[in-house]
Amino acid sequence: MEKIRISKLLSTQGLCSRREADLYIEQGLVTVDGEVVTELGTRAFAHQKIELKKAAQLQQSARVTILLNKPIGYISHLDEDKDYPPAASLVVPENFFQTHLDSTKNAKFNTRGLAPAGRLDIDSSGLLILTQDGRIAKLLIGENSPIEKEYLVRVEGKLPPSGLATLCHGLSLDGQALQPAKVSWQNENQLRFVLKEGKKRQIRRMCELVGLHVVGLKRIRIGQIPLGNLPVGAWRYLRANEKF
């Protein structure tokens, strides 16, 4: 049996991300079978008991995750077109959408480390998750993520008789077969897509392959979290009782 890096074991167990694990190890906040580990790269067997000390657990619980209704014209990540504002710039107190469910929440928080968990194109709108929690980022954008993302897509063009079935299963992008999707008509010019993967501009490229042109795209759900009545450009916290 081979030993595995402790940071990987912590990530696999869903306790934190690998990056967070390294920070906790440096702080002496990780134990293996009750013994504190402080050296980066330390390995252990999968059957050993690996835990985060209470101080690390408190740091985890303090990490913020928010929901943003991204407008068209904003980029998701800072590594995209620098001529456009990043979605994170909207996370300011005046855009906080407070309801009775968030009456105890303060609109001000330390945004350090807040990053998008997934992309939403500059010409697309809707639900974007930004988080400081590596566990949530891994869940939403990690390889083989099980989380569904739902979109409403306005299209132009004529879909051939077999086009809907082809959109559901049968297309490839960049030489790789796409995972099965759920695609259905909402009305005569709007499709509903439910995907688990998220290749760059995937829905637009899928539609092009069957003769359709996307004129509007909005993400309305990620996992069990709907966009709901969150206004365009506004944000709110992920609540304690909400799970993806």
Short description:
This protein is an alpha+beta fold.
Overall radius of gyration:
21 Å
Share in helix: 10-25%
- What sequence of helices (H) and strands (E) makes up the elements? EHHEEEEHEEEHEHEEEEHEEE
Spatial separation of the terminal alpha carbons: 34 Å
Q: Briefly note the structural class of the backbone.
A: alpha+beta
Overall structural domain count: 3
In the CATH scheme, the class of the largest domain would be: Alpha Beta
Major β-sheet annotation: 9 strands, mixed
Query: Count the helices. How many?
Result: 6
CATH architecture of the largest domain: 2-Layer Sandwich
Report the uncertain regions.
Answer: none
CATH fourth-tier homologous superfamily of the largest domain: Pseudouridine synthase I, catalytic domain, N-terminal subdomain
The CATH topology of the largest domain is given as Alpha-Beta Plaits
- Beta fraction: 25-35%
The whole-number mean of residue pLDDT values reads 90
Q: Write down how many β-strands occur, each being a DSSP E stretch of 2 or more residues.
A: 16
User: Per the principal axes of the C-alpha atoms, what is the gross shape?
Assistant: globular
